[in-house]
Amino acid sequence: GLLTSSWISAPTIQSLSSSNSFSQNIPSCLWKLGRLNHVAIAVPDLKKAQSLYKDILGAQVSDAVALPEHGVYTVFVELGNTKLELLHPLGEKSPIASFLQKNKTGGMHHICIEVDDIKAAMTELKEKKIRILSEEPKIGAHGKPVIFLHPKDCHGVLVELEQA
């Protein structure tokens, strides 16, 4: 089975399933992670992607919005408990254009998690040697400050933190 692999022992599984022992190991911070705000997906054809979620899957889908500071067009798909953000390049220097050159059919680009104090998060993450991809927060698609954490410091995932 999936969990019969020799690298996971029964005590490890038991300790992970116990919320008390798991949460006691979390150090206290001056800031706190909040809810998953969205999962961002880079798409080569924005209209086609909008149509998939709206016309075929029946989701509430926003109009495309240009964010020149980030080099992207964004579309949000409402899911009730979170959102999908569809990203399409805006200009040749768009980070999404280079992502799509490597991933022709598109794919997951980043996850966005809300934080209650983005400045405190930046300070503490820098102290913990987590690289932040900008010196200061930028205003994101929701009109709130955002930062991105280097994927190599986050197990291969580009993580966006957004001020709640």
Could you describe the 3D structure shown?
The chain has 164 residues and is α+β, with helices and mostly antiparallel strands. It has one domain: 2,3-Dihydroxybiphenyl 1,2-Dioxygenase, domain 1 (Roll). It has helices at 10-17, 19-24, 46-56, 95-102, 118-127, and strands at residues 33-42, 60-61, 65-67, 72-78, 83-89, 107-115, 138-139, 145-149, 159-163. Strands 1, 2, 3, 4, 5, 6, 7, 8 and 9 form a nine-stranded mixed sheet that branches. A hairpin with a 4-residue loop joins strand 3 and strand 4. The longest helix is centred in the first third of the chain and has 11 residues, at 46-56. It is globular, with a radius of gyration of 18 Å. It starts with 9 loop residues before the first helix and ends with a strand. The model is unreliable at 12-19 (pLDDT under 50).
And the CATH topology?
2,3-Dihydroxybiphenyl 1,2-Dioxygenase, domain 1
> Roughly how many Å apart are the termini?
40 Å
Query: How many domain regions?
Result: 1
What's the Cα radius of gyration? 18 Å
| SSE order | HHEHEEEEHEHEEE
Strand percentage: 25-35%
- Gross geometry: globular
- Assign a percent range to the helix content: 25-40%
Class from secondary-structure proportions: alpha+beta
List keywords for this structure.
alpha+beta; 164 residues; 26% helix; 2,3-Dihydroxybiphenyl 1,2-Dioxygenase, domain 1; nine-stranded mixed β-sheet; 5 helices; single chain; isomerase
